[in-house]
Structure formats: C-alpha cells, structure tokens
Prior knowledge:
Helix content: 10-25%
Number of helices: 1
Order of helices and strands: HEE
Shape: globular
Radius of gyration: 14 Å
Strand content: 15-25%
Strand order of the largest sheet: 1-2
Largest sheet: 2 strands, antiparallel
Amino acid sequence: MQVKTILNAIEKHTGFVYERIGFADGAERKLEIEVRSRRGSRPVCSGCLRRGRAYDRLAVRRFDFVPLI
C-alpha cells in the first residue's frame, strides 16, 4: 500500500491534494509530504470559515505532524 493511499484514508484535508512524498535529506530520517490546493476548489478561511478568492502563496514551510485524534 502506498503512503499517499494511507494519508488519504486517515488524514483528509478538504480542498487539498498530496503531491510528492519522500524522505528528507539530513541526519534524521524524516518523511516529507508536499500538499497543494486542489484545482477548482475555493479556499476557506481557517478563522472565520468564509470562502475566499485565493490561498496564500507564501514560501514553502515545514511543520511537525501533530495527530489530531
């Protein structure tokens, strides 16, 4: 089973698609997953939950995974 399939089954992010999945360079083994907005989906503000015009286009950021369940 592919990691992308597992992520889609467990961690669903409406309006987003998992792109590239692989290991990061460095001494520690880290899994890097690239997420992009789904074509045709309208963004939703995480603060007020209203629909907007576009997602932010900031530089690439890295986050530690924090399970929500």
